[in-house]
């Protein structure tokens, strides 16, 4: 009865360095237009949904028309109509063939590695990665799956990346800008190294978003996103995504996520679709505010160091200007006194909120050494630039003068 293999019985994805992504049909449209229309148009989708706004299809199962005909949607663990619209929009914004969502950015990374790596394989990365990603790399995958992670010694040097790659390397992974020290990796240079060894490049584009940085235009094969951060922008949504070749995305969907059920739910996907409509506008304001705050902190007598790619003294300032449209809304700075000094500043903030996330409309701060990157050894934190006195600051959409005034009065307590 089933002469052809059902669409959900996917073969494992194998990276092909010669593969050229299928051009997107909406590639001729501008970024902001795609942020509003990709995946859904009120007139073009009138047969599916007679609505001006993408609907919330809050159903976890879907009926078959006939015994021998599989519907487009089967069960809520793999995909739903509302989530599909979001996935199409994310793929369009990043310039990828397809996307699959996850319950968080960390889960998206886990689903990707679980799909492409087998016992004995390895992934090449650096210490400039988010804390939960480091935990997966240092402990979870090596101890539970026998998949090891190799950390390059000098991420500014393409040769340092090349020397870590061998015949069992399945992925090269960079996060740029990095959390929390805003290290900028040269995407094009690392892509050339990875491709020369027949290995795909993953870029975590969470901090910049596609509004400010297009990794695939610089040679990346796969993009990792935490939707929780700037993409949603207000701390109401938990989600993540992988954007990349359609064959890889569907391998993740049907051979991993189908069994873990870790995609976003319809309501969260619907909320994200609304928030994406203003992504470009928000990222411009985040960047402008962060620039003003960084310049204030850089000249403050009680601040030892500021990490922000928009400052001329940032080690990769020139690279950031070439690679990014704007520097983004995240920065970090070091105060004297280590943990005690950081605590004193953070406990005396009135407007700025102490919370564990970034990319929100409100300005928030966090202490990486004791919260997100506590799994690193002191030596690893030192190598990554995570000082005990380092405070991560996600600059929001408030009037910048008010953010600066709050920082100034808190710093005066040191």
Which percent range fits the helix content? 25-40%
Separate helix tally: 14
The count of DSSP E runs of length 2 or more, i.e. the number of strands, is 12
Order of helices and strands: HHEHEHEHEHEEHEHHHEHEHEEHEH
CATH topology annotation of the largest domain:
Aspartate Aminotransferase, domain 2
* SSE class: alpha/beta
Distance between the termini: 76 Å
Strand order of the largest sheet: 1-7-6-5-4-2-3
- Please state the overall shape, judged from the principal axes of the Cα atoms: globular
CATH H-level name of the largest domain... which superfamily? Type I PLP-dependent aspartate aminotransferase-like (Major domain)
Mean pLDDT: 95
Spans of at least 5 consecutive residues whose pLDDT stays below 50 are: none
* CATH top-level class of the largest domain: Alpha Beta
- Percentage of residues in DSSP E strands: 5-15%
Annotated CATH architecture of the largest domain = 3-Layer(aba) Sandwich
Radius of gyration, whole Å: 22 Å
Count of distinct structural domains:
2
Main pleated sheet:
7 strands, mixed
